[in-house]
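Handoff note, outgoing to incoming analyst
You'll be picking up this chain. Sequence as last confirmed:
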Amino acid sequence: MMSPDVVAAVLVPAIALAISAVIARITAKRTKELTLNLPPDREETISVPVAATHADVAKAVEESVALEQKVYVALSAILHGEGKIQFGAGSGPDFIVDVAGRRLAIEVKRHLDHLRRDQVLKYSAGAPNAERLVVISPEPPPKALTDATKDLQSTNRLQFVQLAGDEAVADVLRNALAMPSAG
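Most recent structure output, in case you need it:
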């Protein structure tokens, strides 16, 4: 028969490992939102896994900024003239643009799985004179989000634009924003 000390020495690490596996499974799909205050007067909200390390957060911020930069470069290429692109302030949209006499608010998101109706309304409120909020992402909106915002989409106050694969961002935006081509 094994002594209680030996049994404890074997069981305690095994139980700890099992508990660790259960916690990892529970938190694997859970995320948290981090709000970053950026100069001069901007906020950026990113979603990261609950167990994200500092490196994971840094990577998420880098990817988010890179996507916004890609959209900004594309907008600059298709919107000619001064003052056609403004940066949103505070918790408003990322950009506010003037397109063919219409004012549009643009929010760029890496992931849409945690975007909620109240956030969409907050981005819209951050650009009160905008005709529509355009949410740009590399992924399609989840069904729960499209269902929750169906009224906004049907009244043309909200539009989702997916940047798929290798398509040229400027071409996708030109088509989505119903802009004449440069040629």
